[in-house]
Amino acid sequence: MYMPRNNRVNCRSLVFLNLSMMLASIFKSFGFVDIYVWIGNNSAKLGHMYAAASTGPNSLVSVTSILGGVSDNTGSGIAHRSVLKTGLNIILACSIPKNSPMLETQAEKILIQKLISLGYTKSGLGGTS
């Protein structure tokens, strides 16, 4: 795979009690960053995959299912809220059970905290959130 010289890739694995997370970021020229996230619960399955991005000046976010058939609210909700809170475009794969709101909340909280602590939010990259 060709990658220009000024791109950097960072990858982190996070494990919490019953939750596993893989976070990869690709820094591109001009301060742009792509975020790829996998969240799992006691399973190494990829799960449904979503692309979420800010789509307008009024903080609108679009989310689409790109793998896994019919979308569920768990992964698409985490992706949607993550974009709202960080201002980043996110590709998220999620294999959390559908009817686990506490687990979903925990996963989202950990993801947002990690993105902010690593400085991956738009405001941390010199943009606006």
From TrEMBL:
The keyword Membrane applies. The chain crosses the membrane at residues 15-39. Pfam families: PAC4 (PF16093). InterPro entries: PAC4. Keywords: Membrane, Transmembrane, Transmembrane helix. GO terms for biological process: proteasome assembly. PANTHER family: PROTEASOME ASSEMBLY CHAPERONE 4. This is Proteasome assembly chaperone 4. It comes from Glycine max.
